[in-house]
Design brief:
4 strands; single chain; alpha+beta; four-stranded mixed beta sheet
């Protein structure tokens, strides 16, 4: 489970990136966070990344180390946002290589949930979003993913 510092960094990182794209600011939702936490705990038990079936938008981050893992909320979000370098602005739309980035900045997503599960050597971070982003139509991407 994420501590207060991790939650603050996670939300602030989302909103800092979203501000670059003129997206609405997000708020942390306790309901979405409970859902994201349940999923993060499950992923830790199966030690595999896979998406839930909640219907929420969802990003998952995984890190493993032979030593103790120390991760900040910003690092997970920045990892997702860095996919901006692969986004094709001339042909807006969904791509497996940029779906985390587009969900982070998706303008219509305004509620954010956070779940973190770790056994010390591996950590799963789950972000859940409402309304869900990455609606697969060019018009939706043009309206929700603006150039910085």
């Amino acid at each position: 489970m994420a501590d207060a510092t991790f939650r603050r960094e996670f939300l602030e990182a989302h909103n800092a990136h979203r501000a670059k794209h003129n997206s609405q600011m997000m708020t942390l939702s306790s309901e979405l966070s409970a859902s994201a936490q349940t999923w993060a705990d499950y992923l830790l038990t199966i030690k595999t990344m896979k998406h839930s079936t909640t219907g929420n938008g969802e990003n998952i981050f995984y890190q493993w180390s032979s030593g103790p893992v120390k991760l900040t909320g910003r690092e997970a979000v920045d990892n997702w946002y860095d996919e901006i370098n692969l986004y094709n602005w001339r042909s807006p739309g969904f791509s497996k290589g940029t779906g985390h980035f587009t969900q982070v900045v998706w303008s219509n997503s305004t509620k954010l949930g956070l779940g973190v599960a770790s056994d010390g050597n591996r950590v799963f971070v789950v972000g859940q979003y409402q309304p869900a982003g990455n609606i697969n139509s060019r018009e939706e991407f043009e309206n929700n993913v603006q150039r910085p």
